[in-house]
Specification:
By secondary structure, the protein is α+β, with helices and mostly antiparallel strands. The chain has a domain at 1-59. The chain has helices at 40-59, 62-78, 80-91, 95-113, 115-118, and strands at 2-3, 6-8, 11-13, 20-24, 31-36, 122-128, 131-135. The strands form three sheets. It has a three-stranded mixed beta sheet with strand order 1-5-4, with no helix packed on it. Strands 2-3 form a two-stranded antiparallel sheet. Helix 3 packs across helix 4. The longest helix has 20 residues, at 40-59.
């Protein structure tokens, strides 16, 4: 039985909570993986490491960040068959359906690569008598999600 891990600070790490959830293959009903449930301490550690990494990433210019996304597109295209097989095992999809989902994901990533042009904000002069309006980018920073 393969045990999954957590991806924290650029590395795959084992869970330490001792609690696991089964990941089933929907096509067969068999357990294919064990997924570790993160403890409060593990979650806090991941958030702290992400918060420590955020200033450097935030200081990286948008074009360089877009290049990281471009590299991801290349990797996803390179490994499309492997990703489709994994998605098929996890969701019980046919391989063509899984490839369609991955293609839609690629389209979202490709759209986001253009984000530097959308991050400029906006300015409206004289939106009203003596009123100028503007919007500016203010990132949220580090967030956590339970999936």
């Amino acid at each position: 039985m393969k045990e999954l891990g957590h991806f924290i600070n650029g590395a795959l790490v084992s869970g330490t909570s001792g609690r696991f959830d089964d990941i089933f293959n929907p096509a067969t009903g068999e357990v294919q993986y064990l997924c570790p449930m993160a403890s409060v301490a593990e979650t806090t550690d991941a958030i702290e490491k992400a918060a420590a990494a955020q200033p450097a990433w935030g200081a990286t210019n948008p074009q360089k960040r877009a290049r990281v996304m471009m590299a991801m597109v290349g990797l996803m295209n390179r490994d499309m068959d492997k990703l489709a097989e994994a998605l098929s095992r996890e969701h019980g999809k046919t391989i063509p359906d899984a490839k369609g989902d991955l293609q839609r994901g690629l389209e979202v990533i490709e759209y986001c690569i253009g984000a530097p042009q959308m991050l400029k904000g906006e300015f409206t002069d004289s939106a009203g008598p003596g009123i100028d309006m503007y919007s500016m980018r203010q990132p949220l920073g580090v967030v956590a999600s339970i999936m």
